[in-house]
Amino acid sequence: ETLHRPERVLLVVVLVGFISADIIGTVTTPGVTPLQGALSVATTFTFVLYLWSPLIATIALGAAIGLSFVAGDAIGPLAAGSIAALLVLRLGTTRLVVAYAGGLLLYISLFASGFGTGGDTQTNVTIYLLLATITGAVGLALRLATARRRRLEEELRLELATRAEHEREAVLAERRAIA
Description:
Helix content: over 70%
Radius of gyration: 24 Å
Structural class: mainly alpha
Shape: elongated
Number of helices: 6
Order of helices and strands: HHHHHH
Low-confidence stretches: none
């Protein structure tokens, strides 16, 4: 499964905006270490990999989120992981979707327990669960719409082929009757 051209263009445009915001935020936000800023940009950049391979992109995103978690910045990657549900459910295989869901639930559980927060446990994980649910639903809807479009295209192709065959047979029968 791959993204259609309009989806690819939209993804690139959105990512350019988010990467730019990450870079600006890293430079202008006090208290952000260069490591946290670099990991934030790297986490956002992993979304570009969904243009190539959902499996590689999800693995890279998981690695970037894990590194950010260890670095004490779990909130931004939590949002990225939640937003990734759209692309994973749109493009991923069943195994990838299940693995992604398990990883996201593990990450949220660790975050809710206070790991990777650097002492800041005021963030409510419900927001991120809702975000993951909504983006995942959009991804699934896009996947189902794409599957339906393909099925309808195949049905139309078969119908047109059958119609052309009937017309050919009718022309042959007419020629035989004339002869």
